Amino acid sequence: MTKASSAARPVESLWSPLGNRLFRTLWIANAASNLGTWMQGMGAAWLMAQLSQSAQMVALVQAAMTLPIFLLVVPAGIVADRHDRPTFLLATHALMALSALGLSLISPPV
Question: How far apart are CA 37 and CA 65, in angstroms?
Answer without folding.
Answer: 10
